[in-house]
């Protein structure tokens, strides 16, 4: 893996140390440089990106809902929630709703990382069923169950 600056490399080393201490079987994807951990019923993606020439940013993100019907009411509701939340934010890409929370890499500590993961998992879990009931789509857990998860999707794609 290539790093843009020394802080990004140091942050990667800290993540490699902290995640196995905090979570069972964290997965590191060599292709995109992201980590994945399970927290309750949520799968969390953790990225480490450069932020300027001398900093890194760690983004903890969860798929909240996939394949939802995006309309003005949903967008307005998520923006209002973002205004009320002290940490983290909802976002939409295509028909997928995400919840994420970012922290600086230079000062990353175990407790900060665990708090970020807990915040993302809790907020995503608090809102996923509500969004699905009003706007359709699937929670991340439903999607994993329906597709068989990453390992089964990779195995299927290799056999095709």
Task: Provide a descriptive summary of the structure in words.
By secondary structure, the protein is of the alpha+beta class. The chain is built from 5 helices and 7 strands. Strands 1, 2, 3, 4, 5, 6 and 7 form a 7-stranded antiparallel beta sheet that branches. Helix 4 packs parallel to helix 5. The longest helix has 26 residues.
The poorly predicted ranges are 151-157
User: What's the total count of β strands?
Assistant: 7
Structural class: alpha+beta
Major sheet details: 7 strands, antiparallel
Number of helices: 5
**Secondary structure: helix percent:** 40-55%
Task: Provide a concise account of the structure shown.
The chain is of the alpha+beta class and 160 residues long. The protein has five helices and seven strands; from the N terminus they run H-E-E-E-E-H-E-E-H-E-H-H. The chain has helices at residues 6-22, 72-84, 110-135, 140-147, 149-159, and strands at residues 27-29, 34-39, 42-50, 56-66, 89-93, 96-104, 138-139.
